[in-house]
Amino acid sequence: MNRLQLTPIYGDDDTITHVIGIQFFTETNIDLGPVPGSFVKESAKLADRFRSGLSTYRPFPAGDRNVCRGICGILQLSDEVLYLKVLSRLTPRDIASIGSVCRQLYALTKNEDLWRMVCQNAWGSETTSVLETVPGAKRLGWGRLARELTTLEAAAWRKLTVGGAVEPSRCNFSACAVGNRVVLFGGEGVDMQPMNDTFVLDLNSSSPEWQHVQVSSPPPGRWGHTLSCVNGSHLVVFGGCGRQGLLNDVFVLDLDAKPPSWREIPGLAPPLPRSWHSSCTLDGTKLIVSGGCADSGVLLSDTFLLDLSMEKPIWREIPVAWTPPSRLGHTLSVYGGRKILMFGGLAKSGPLRFRSSDVFSMDLSEEEPCWRCVTGSGMPGAGNPGGIAPPPRLDHVAVSLPGGRILIFGGSVAGLHSASQLYLLDPTDEKPTWRILNVPGRPPRFAWGHSTCVVGGTRAIVLGGQTGEEWMLSELHELSLASSVI
Questions:
Q1: Which of 66, 190, 368, 451 has its CA at a distance of 20 to 30 angstroms from the CA of residue 103?
Q2: 314 CB contacts (<8 Å, ≥6 apart)?
Q3: Cβ partners under 8 Å of residue 32, min gap 6
Q4: Structural domains of the chain sorted by starting position, each given as residue range(s) with its CATH number in brackets
Q5: DSSP labels for 317-367?
Q6: Cis ω on the peptide bond leading into residue 259 (within 30° of 0)?
Q7: What is the mean pLDDT of the chain?
Q8: How far apart are alpha carbons 184 and 167 in whole angstroms?
Q9: Measured distance CA(413)–CA(421) in Å, rounded
């Protein structure tokens, strides 16, 4: 059991300028604190005991005016001030630790409103809003949700079987999540036939099944494109390879509109037509596109941004002094608010192309954004990244976790390495280091980035591809990052 003694330090005008904290550890019978049912009663007792103690508190000089004995100054604050102005500014890990200091702080750290504020400050309001839509999230509680998403102690694989059908059969489609729905668009059919139909799978349903959505004004058929979610229920399609060749058009669909209809966005100064590029969304309104393959198989290294909140969106290339090697099949992930992280892909190295395990980042909040190398390079002849780096790969899956960590798995992997092994990286660390994450359950044999999406912030849904050519869309694999309490 530990005890925290906080001693105020007084300045010349008898005002407190600093507080020294000393933590004492002693052997004692372990008191795990009140059970949830008696939380309110215990909190009231603690508050009464604390207020009665305050009435007898007097500073007691001990030979030096800067040292006094008595109750710590910070604990004289009201519980409301403590959790609104002090505790809410800490990280989830800090809150979990501070609950072991004393009974009063332990009781405060059981407050669900506090945990929600802590999670929102640490992960952002957009992430916490998504997490609130997770089925059973209220019963799980913010405290437990924060612990499980921080430690990943509850992460597990499971296999799902769903009804309905996606017909005709296809590969090289693109999928993304809108709330707790998985949306599939386009793909490559028989004889390289580009497709332009839309299917939806509602995972909130008691018996999920694929449904073909009748949508007016669909984009031209394509494969090798990207499908992203913006503004809540809006889907945006960019690029890909169509019947007439490579594309650089943009189409938006409001999935909740009655009836739903695709709408082309005539963005000015668009990027070069491309396929097998990577994209992500920023602030819920901005589409970012990077790299890919242009005409004649030329690999690209550019990065463009399109603000879809504008009445007449304009493409803007992000000017940088240096770019990572040109590549396709890589991933872009958003972390830390406005930072993007690039990983892997098939990258150019002189006249050759190699699978890569490079990691680069860019902070778009800077006046002059620039690409920075995060963990070194996995290119031949270069140094190894920190920790046990993922084998070089392309067409893989990258999952952004609350707090900025990135989870990598799947794709086309070099050598005999397993594509189902999970790798975790925290780019916010001073020295980012890869680590392997082992989770129970049966992972999919194959997982491709264009067929995987994150649903509700806690589940990565892998659409069931047995190989790159044969797809079993009635079989899904789910990587659950938090306990299911449905």
A1: 66
A2: 267, 268, 269, 306, 307
A3: none
A4: 2-110 (no CATH), 156-480 (2.120.10.80)
A5: E---S--PPPEES-EEEEETTTEEEEE--EEEETTEEEEB--EEEEETTSS
A6: yes
A7: 84
A8: 12
A9: 11
Record the pTM. 0.81
How many whole angstroms from its chain centre is CA 414?
26
Q: Tokens at residue 341, please?
A: 């992280």
pLDDT, tens only, 149-192: 999 999 999 998 899 999 988 889 999 999 889 999 999 988 88
Q: At residue 456, what is the residue type? A: G
What does the alpha-carbon distance between residue 240 and residue 277 come to, in Å, rounded to a whole number?
Answer: 8
Q: How many helices (H) and strands (E) does the chain have?
A: 8, 33
> Tokens at residue 232, please?
């809540």
Asked if 378 contacts 396 with a C-beta cutoff of 8 angstroms, the reply is no
Tokens for 361?
């980042």
